[in-house]
TrEMBL record:
SUPFAM superfamilies per the UniProt record, alphabetical: P-loop containing nucleoside triphosphate hydrolases
Species whose genome carries this gene: Candidatus Segetimicrobium genomatis
GO MF: ABC-type amino acid transporter activity; ATP binding; ATP hydrolysis activity
Chain ranges of the ABC transporter domain: 18-262
Keyword Nucleotide-binding: yes
Subcellular location, principal: membrane
Entry keywords, A to Z: Amino-acid transport, ATP-binding, Cell membrane, Membrane, Nucleotide-binding, Transport
Protein name (Swiss-Prot/TrEMBL): Amino acid ABC transporter ATP-binding protein
């Protein structure tokens, strides 16, 4: 891997699962991402921290082409996401091609987005049935296995309105896993939960991390980030300001902006 495309704090090794090169994103006159270079290795757990408005969510949405980058490129397993080369030019992919690549990248959002008219198990079965073309029996077997994995097998026939927020988020995680992604993106998945429900979702994420799932996690749960991450990056104003090992980032960050952010967040969490 050439140094030009190696993200901050990235160790040497084999070709990455994810590579982001020179990524910019503008919404009209507002520059949200201002040149992101980042790589993530297979099996790596990367946490992104930073203040609101720093570009964290936009970065995740660009990875699976929910947002089209203004400039720069995203690669999954060396394959361009959202575009292809034609006669030396980058051309937008067809929707079907983008959908195929998105199956490699699962994303769990702040909100749960479960189908209210479907039970927990039916919500999980939708993707395998429609996208992976599984039989109904195989999709149900997979969905039940995943409900067991997130501790909700006993809720398989319950509709979302009868589930707690933490239970709904765990179903959302299971639904994403049903597509068998190679990379999981978590966008502040506990931010909409009551404090007593946060732990049950973080425990599922800890289990996935222990099993070797490649994960990029945007979170304000700093203890979780320190415990689970292989690497932490701090973003501010659309840029990666600092990156490093969790202990270094949380105990002795180099950049004054990182220190100020962590001081404010950790002080607030200590008294919450």
């Amino acid at each position: 891997m050439d140094a030009e495309h190696r993200g901050p704090g990235t160790p040497p090794g084999p070709a990455p699962l994810l590579r982001i090169a020179g990524l910019h994103k503008r919404f009209g006159d507002l520059a949200v991402l201002k040149g992101i270079d980042l790589t993530v290795a297979a099996g790596e757990k990367l946490t992104i921290i930073g203040p609101s408005g720093s570009g964290k969510t936009t970065l995740l949405r660009c990875i699976n082409h929910l947002e089209k980058p203004t400039q720069g490129h995203v690669y999954i397993e060396g394959e361009l996401v959202g575009e292809r080369m034609v006669d030396g030019r980058h051309v937008e992919m067809r929707d079907r091609e983008i959908a195929r690549l998105r199956t490699k990248v699962g994303m769990v959002f702040q909100r749960f987005y479960l189908f209210p008219h479907l039970t927990a198990i039916e919500n999980i079965m939708v993707g395998p049935l429609r996208v992976l073309k599984m039989s109904k029996a195989d999709a149900r077997t997979l969905a039940l296995e995943l409900l067991k994995k997130v501790g909700l097998a006993h809720k398989c026939d319950v509709y979302p309105e009868r589930l707690s927020g933490g239970q709904q988020q765990r179903v959302a995680i299971a639904r994403t896993l049903a597509m068998r992604p190679k990379l999981m993106l978590f966008d502040e998945v506990t931010s909409a939960l009551d404090p007593e429900l946060i732990g049950e979702v973080l425990n599922v994420m800890r289990q996935l991390a222990a099993e070797g799932m490649t994960m990029i996690v945007v979170t304000h749960e700093m203890q979780f980030a320190e415990d689970v991450s292989d690497r932490v990056i701090f973003m501010d104003d659309g840029l990666v300001v600092e990156a490093g090992a969790p202990h270094k980032m949380f105990r002795a960050p180099d950049h004054p902006r990182t220190r100020a952010f962590l001081s404010a967040v950790l002080d607030r969490q200590a008294y919450s």
